[in-house]
TrEMBL record:
It comes from Nonomuraea endophytica. The lineage of its organism: Bacteria, Bacillati, Actinomycetota, Actinomycetes, Streptosporangiales. This is DNA-binding CsgD family transcriptional regulator. The keyword ATP-binding applies. Residues 800-863 form the HTH luxR-type domain. One of its GO terms (biological process) is regulation of DNA-templated transcription. PROSITE patterns: HTH_LUXR_1, HTH_LUXR_2.
Length: 863
């Protein structure tokens, strides 16, 4: 703009709808101008008199108004042009809102625009309309600049947001109009800015009563997420509805889409129009719309009908519709939609208390298998305050609250709510058994095994033979899962009694949840084949359920299963995607963080591993002390040991399992703890720990823990230089291979080889190959360093391969660590190389990638 006005004589026309920033831009150009004379004339708010804008201009230039306006139109044009040209050597004239000027002034302004005097630059702002069509042009003299809506990136910058869904929603709401963006940001959440309300009310006031009533109806439709189509609007407003809607288009409130429907553009205008509807008229409109939608051929979107019924004050009718639609949604596998419908309706203040409680019970039953529980938890807590709730209904609602708190919210208060629910449900034994069976699961809470066993026995006694199939299935899968987690041999009998499929969606969801909750413990205890089978069954049962908590858990357990069994293809990417999709839900992302943390640890990415392994679901902070807690703590202990530090949390973590009295899923933790104890000269404590661990797992059905016990014996033997260490490590490696634990098998092979060097080079070589296949580059580098020391090699020597301009495997490892910000010294420590060797590798990497500095090496360059 500044470059355009510097080319005087010139006229620059700046067009744009209200709020596009015409005035802002003109003022910025004016402020940066070096013209000797700068004049601003506004065309809004002036009296309706001939030549009133020209009078303003002449006065600003210090001329004689009467002399300038004497004579005919042509003489006036020439006089004003001469006055403007003689004002100074260089002049910048800004005329704002020129389309609002009186017709006589417009004649003069058109003349000036196409014939600007020498040294004069004119900048005229206008709202597009008929005025531009009547304006002539002179090639090379008149320039036009149209201001359009802001792109998402600029809206995000104005709002201080990162580009993403929130910025896109703001852009959609405001249409990217700068003034509207600014007004929305200044207003409170959900508020209609006062200036926007005034704008819309002003445009509505310019319509006749019939058109205004029709646009109020269109805004009411829009408020429920509906579309103003002509048939619906005609049913509400009569046969002239289409004409009225077209008047709304002319008033720059609506647009007509290609499909013939009408919409407020931007949507913020619709929000303001809805807020402008008088309260007395609003209720009548909602009632009329509810009736029209209910009678509509093919039915209406249920959410819209329910919204209008509620807004019309027909809460009981809205509740009946919501229950029916929620039931249909569940049958169709859209549980999340059903939860959303019921949760929204429960926010209705006029619902009778019995209706509210009944809806809350249905919501609770659905919510325990749905994602996103925070609002439901708040609702259930609010309803439970009511002292008039019948005890049985109170117990049911508290059961759902406890399950949501314990399973999804990661709130330790969940177990207390479940215990209270079990007592309140003494006359509803199936529901009581559901609460008891949840309390029987040993992963939840830090209570002792005896307490869980007591709850299990109570659940088995309370469970009736007949009743709601989904509820009974929910109890049975919990009992089977509890036995599996304990490592009890009779777990297999309980699992075999479970159904393979079910008739209803609710029962299938309970079976899916149950088989998923069996797969994790089965894998942790050392039963990989049954674990894979349970996962397959869970996935098949949940396949048509849509997004749900069990489905998220199935993904979590699948990640864990793939990791421990050595399936690395796409694993990290899958885990990162799951972590992003369920951000903020520690109970649904613990395994993803766990897998990524251990993958980073095996690659020597200490900083990344530390952050991931400290996720809330891995440290006991959410009240769960299951597989994730044991593995997360084991990873943090191993990381501290690698760095030569004493793991401060070691004793506290071991105390959790001592207090619980079951060690079946603590194998990784015990293994890491023994390594740390021995490294820090506490061999006696390591021996006592192994004795305690072995005594418990010996009698349980947990082959992985038993293999860890053998590895522990080998570790103690090696620490005291006893000759049987190598044989014990070899036995452990065989046992670990039998339960599909390739990483742990590789560690056992490496340790076995170290005990008999140089005779053990074959086992170290086998370990190095396993580590390489598992992408455990830090472990592989440690083995390679040992092999170099003793003259061995991880791979057969076939002659040195030339990589040309491509990165060699070693260079790729170095470049990855450079991209992560590691120094040469840190890279040398991770890859067991000398700093000088690393320096040479880094130089070759930068040369091959075409970079001149280390900070130009990015992970994307390596893909």
């Amino acid at each position: 703009m500044r470059s355009l006005v510097a080319r005087a004589p010139v006229t620059v026309l700046v067009g744009g709808d209200t709020g596009m920033g015409k005035t802002w831009l003109a003022r910025r150009v004016l402020a940066g101008s070096v013209a000797a004379t700068r004049v601003v004339v506004g065309c809004r708010g002036l009296p309706a008199e001939p030549h009133v804008v020209i009078r303003e201009l002449v006065a600003c230039l210090g001329g004689d108004e009467e002399r300038a306006l004497a004579g005919g139109a042509y003489r006036v044009c020439r006089t004003v042009r001469a006055l403007l040209g003689g004002a100074a050597e260089s002049v910048l004239l800004v005329v704002e809102d020129v389309d609002q000027a009186d017709s006589d002034s417009l004649q003069v302004l058109r003349y000036l625009a196409t014939r600007p005097p020498p040294g004069v630059a004119m900048l005229m702002t206008f709202t597009p309309g008929r005025w531009m069509a009547r304006l002539g042009s002179a090639a090379g003299v008149v320039e036009r600049v149209d201001l359009g809506p802001l792109p998402v990136a600029v809206v995000a910058e104005l709002a201080g947001l990162a580009p993403g869904p929130e910025a896109e929603a703001l852009r959609e709401l405001t249409g990217g109009v700068p003034l509207l963006v600014e007004q929305v940001l200044a207003a409170g959440p959900g508020e209609v800015p006062a200036q926007v309300l005034d704008l819309v009310q002003g445009r509505l006031a310019g319509l006749d009563e019939r058109a205004r009533q029709t646009l109020w109806a269109a805004a009411t439709v829009w408020s429920a997420g509906g579309v103003a189509c002509v048939p619906l609007m005609a049913r509400i407003c009569g046969p002239s509805a289409e004409t009225a809607l077209l008047e709304g288009v002319a008033a720059r409130l609506l647009i007509r889409r290609e499909d013939g429907t009408f919409a407020f553009a931007p949507p913020l205008l619709g929000r303001a129009a809805a807020a402008s509807v008088p309260a007395s008229r609003r209720t009548l409109l909602h009632a009329a719309l509810a009736q029209a939608l209910a009678a509509q051929d093919g039915g209406a979107p249920p959410e819209q009908l329910i919204y209008h019924l509620r807004a019309a004050g027909q809460a009981a009718e809205a509740a009946r519709h919501a229950e029916r639609v929620a039931e249909q949604a569940v049958r169709a596998g859209a549980t999340a939609r059903a939860v959303r419908l019921l949760r929204d309706l429960l926010g209705e203040a006029d619902l009778p208390s019995r209706t509210r409680a009944g809806l809350a019970g249905r919501l609770g039953r659905l919510a325990v298998t749905s994602l996103g529980c925070e609002e439901t938890i708040d609702l259930l807590r609010t309803i439970l305050i009511d002292p008039l709730l019948p005890q049985g209904l109170r117990g049911e609602l508290r059961l759902h609250l406890g399950l949501l708190l314990m399973n999804q919210a990661g709130d330790t208060a969940g177990r207390g709510e479940l215990a209270r629910a079990a007592a309140e449900l003494h006359r509803r034994p199936a529901l009581a058994a559901r609460a008891m069976s949840a309390l029987a699961l040993p992963y939840g809470g830090a209570g002792p095994l005896a307490e869980h066993l007591e709850w299990l026995a109570k659940a088995e006694r309370a469970l009736p033979q007949t009743g709601d199939p989904a509820l009974l299935t929910g109890v049975r899968v919990n009992c089977a899962g509890a036995l599996m987690q304990y490592g009890e041999h009779r777990a297999w009998t309980a699992v075999a009694a479970l159904a393979g499929d079910a008739q209803t969606a609710a029962e299938r969801m309970q079976l899916a949840r149950g088989y998923c909750n069996l797969a994790g413990p089965a894998m942790a205890l050392g039963h990989p084949r049954p674990a894979a089978d349970y996962l397959r069954r869970a996935e098949e049962l949940a396949r048509h359920a849509g997004p749900s908590y069990p489905l998220a858990r199935i993904t979590e357990v699948s990640l864990y299963h793939e990791w421990v069994t050595g399936q690395r293809e796409g694993l990290a990417e899958h885990a990162r995607r799951h972590l992003a999709d369920h951000a903020g839900r520690p109970a649904a992302t613990a395994n993803a963080a766990l897998v990524l943390g251990h993958l980073a640890l095996a690659k020597g990415e200490w900083h990344e591993a530390e952050e991931l392994l400290s996720a809330p679901g891995l440290d006991g902070s959410i009240g769960w002390y299951g597989i994730e807690f044991a593995l997360g703590t084991a990873g943090r202990i191993r990381l501290a040991t690698t760095r030569g530090r004493w793991p401060a949390e070691l004793e506290e973590a071991l105390q959790v399992f001592r207090a619980k009295g079951v060690w079946a899923w603590a194998g990784e933790l015990v293994d890491a703890a023994m390594e740390a104890l021995i490294l820090h000269g506490r061999t006696g404590q390591a021996r006592l720990l192994l004795k305690e661990f072995t005594a418990d797992v010996r009698a349980r059905d947990c082959p992985y823990a038993q293999a860890v016990a053998v590895h522990g014996q080998a570790t103690l033997a090696a620490a005291t230089d006893r000759p049987e260490a190598a044989e014990l490590f070899t036995r452990a490696a065989t046992a670990l291979a039998a339960v599909s634990r390739p990483y742990e098998q590789a560690r056992a092979l490496e340790n076995a080889g170290r005990c008999t060097l140089p005779g053990g080079l074959g086992q170290v070589t086998a370990a190095a190959r396993l580590f390489t296949a598992l992408d455990a580059t830090w472990d592989a580098a440690r083995c390679a360093s040992l092999l170099r020391e003793y003259g061995g090699a991880a791979e057969p020597r076939r002659g040195r391969r030339g990589y040309g301009k491509q990165l060699s495997p070693r260079e790729r490892e170095v470049s990855r660590l450079v991209a992560l910000g590691r120094t040469n010294k840190e890279i040398a420590e991770v890859l067991f190389l000398s700093p000088r060797t690393v320096e040479q590798h880094v130089a070759r990497v930068m040369r091959k990638l075409g970079t001149s500095t280390r900070d130009q090496v990015h992970l994307k360059l390596l893909e």
